[in-house]
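Title: [Solved] Glutamyl-Q tRNA(Asp) synthetase 3D structure

Original question kept below for reference.
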Amino acid sequence: MNHQQYIGRFAPSPSGPLHLGSLVAALGSYLRARSQNGQWLVRIEDIDPPREIAGATDDILRTLEAYGLHWDGDVLYQSDRIYAYQSQIDTLMAQDKAYFCQCSRKQIKAMGGTYDGRCGRLTKPHHRGAIRIRNSAGIDRFNDLLMGEIKVDKDFATEDFIIKRSDGLYAYQLAVVMDDALQQITEVTRGSDLLIPTCRQISLFQMFEQTPPTWLHLPLVCTEPGMKLSKQNHAPAIDKAQPQASFNAALAFLGQAQVTPEQKMAKMVTQAVAQFELSLVPNQTEIIQT
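Solution (posted by the thread starter after getting help):
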């Protein structure tokens, strides 16, 4: 970790209201930051319009406030960062560190499921399509504060991955790394659904000559093995009017002692921060909630 104040973040996408799974991620990252006397930032990942729902951003922010999870500084909106993402891609293309690819999913499946870099070796390069970065770092392992050493399939880790989709949308991997660097995030605390892609993010940090944060991946709330609660499978929204029960449910999921229900959420939050113990968080990628 950088020798500076702890800076963490919560970065939801506005694809629907917060549910128990997203509350676990929000609360876990908040408690970790505040227990380290650090900052907790909020970023809205709103660069995938087909998945976004009108009014979801405001609803997410009001829900965080209702649960007493108040952030530091201004909310960062990825939609305000489009120029920065494109500028980085333009630089990479000019340096021949990225290239256009027109391979379909069917073609990649025929390659064995891992893209083999063929479009990057063309004597006459494509001038349209998805944009892939030449993955010169190929990081295939990293340390997670909860899970320990994580090793990733070498083919996945070394693949030239997409940084801008063929439909013109910017890839999550590019945007999240650039924004974590911009906000000087020192530790990323989030759900374990992003455990494996972390290696690609570390590779990007290295290729961009930036210091990566430390990593802490929390267990996912699942209804059955491999099926996490999500907005896409219509997970019920948490209650903004009476947040006490869901707050304590999220604490219990994180292995923490529940706190005394209070009308003022600030008191519950203060107690939760004071008693937070990272060692009590289950080091599992998912937990089934029936």
